[in-house]
């Protein structure tokens, strides 16, 4: 079981605006904050997500092949999360729509630092 995922940022305040907007749509908020890092989620309700400036002081970079998936409650919420992401500085990596044959509906986007995310619904 994954407890949380942390992504790097080079501009914490810009990233915070992006993730605050996604978290609001998902019905959660910031649960921890300290200099250089913020975490969103609801204790006991599944994996959270953190955004941090790298501990070693180097520039944050995107992991090739790394993606964080945000579970939505409906296709409409997938669509809204995608639109929120783009409105808050994200970029499109694949618009909302069905993927494959198994009832998987998803939208893909990157945050302002280039970290890849998706919003999805199974079934």
From TrEMBL:
Location of the VOC domain: 1-122
SUPFAM superfamilies referenced in this protein's UniProt entry, alphabetically: Glyoxalase/Bleomycin resistance protein/Dihydroxybiphenyl dioxygenase
Source species, domain of life: Bacteria
Pfam families: Glyoxalase (PF00903)
Stored InterPro entries: Glyas_Bleomycin-R_OHBP_Dase, Glyas_Fos-R_dOase_dom, VOC_core
Protein name: VOC family protein
Source organism (scientific name): Peiella sedimenti
């Amino acid at each position: 079981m994954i407890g949380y995922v942390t992504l790097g940022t080079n501009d914490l305040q810009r990233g915070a605006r992006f993730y605050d907007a996604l978290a609001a749509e998902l019905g959660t908020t910031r649960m921890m904050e300290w200099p250089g890092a913020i975490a969103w989620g609801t204790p006991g309700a599944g994996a959270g997500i953190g955004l941090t400036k790298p501990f070693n002081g180097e520039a944050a970079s995107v992991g090739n092949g790394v993606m964080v998936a945000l579970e939505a409650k409906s296709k409409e919420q997938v669509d809204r999360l995608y639109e929120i992401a783009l409105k808050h500085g994200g970029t499109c990596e694949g618009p909302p729509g069905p993927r494959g044959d198994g009832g998987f509906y998803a939208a893909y986007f990157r945050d302002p630092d280039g970290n890849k995310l998706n919003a999805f619904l199974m079934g």
